[in-house]
Amino acid sequence: EAEVALVGRSNVGKSTLMRELTGHKFDTGGNPGVTRQPNHYDWTAEDFVITDLPGFGFMSGVDEDHREQIKTDIVHYLEEYADNVLVAILVVDGKSVIDIIDRHSGPDEVPYDVEMFHFLRDLEVPVVVAVNKMDKVDDKDERLNELCDRLGLYPPWKQWQETIAPITAKKGRIEPLNEAVREHLHEQQRDDL
Ligand code: GDP
Which CATH number does 3-192 carry? Predict the structure, then answer.
């Protein structure tokens, strides 16, 4: 069955978003690193499964080796199933994503979110970046333009509405994400004709 894969750092709101998309209850907050294996769920609005991949990055109680292992497992999963993945949703925290990217950028360091974005593109998996927690962001356009810049997409972000989807998962405001995902699905159906 065709799938949509969800990836993102811990605490960006992946579980909250999953709950919105699927209607399932997920363990949100307080217990980062719970999702260790890919989990499959039905997307209620569409006819495919959503695969929730483990969160990565800092997790209290999870040591460095284990974090690296989680990261490797995610990469292997995506490589193996790339043909089956219609769209990947990379969830980021709109409030902190620029700071985190800039803190981890350097001569021999690529920030995870940026790395994942390009990795998925190299696999030819269309990526939608779900920029979550937009309720906490004051200057929305500026933030989204900065994110485009960091991802190598030429601003303004409004040109990239198939790729950049500002959302507030906690309040169920995820329409830009649904729209972006639908666009990709329809594009692929057109390509298949
Ligand atoms: P996960 O680790 O990525 O699965 O993140 P969770 O879904 O557990 O969410 C982490 C924290 O972010 C929780 O305290 C959520 O309530 C909060 N959160 C999730 N989505 C939003 C949002 O849209 N806005 C705000 N302000 N907080 C959110």
Answer: 3.40.50.300
Predicted-complex ipTM score: 0.99
Largest alpha-carbon pair distance within the chain? Answer: 49
Question: Where along the chain do its domains lie?
Answer: 3-192
**27 CB near ligand 1 (under 6 Å):** no
Angle CA 64–70–71, to nearest 5: 90
CA distances from 163 to 106, 147, 155, 177, 183 (A): 25, 11, 12, 9, 10
Atom nearest to 169 CA in ligand 1 = 23
Among residues 100, 59, 106, 91, which one has the least CA distance to residue 168? 91
CA 98: distance to chain centroid?
Answer: 15
Ligand 1 proximity of 28 Cβ (cutoff 6 Å): yes
Each residue of 90-139: pLDDT tens digit? 999 999 999 999 999 998 888 999 999 999 999 999 999 999 999 999 99
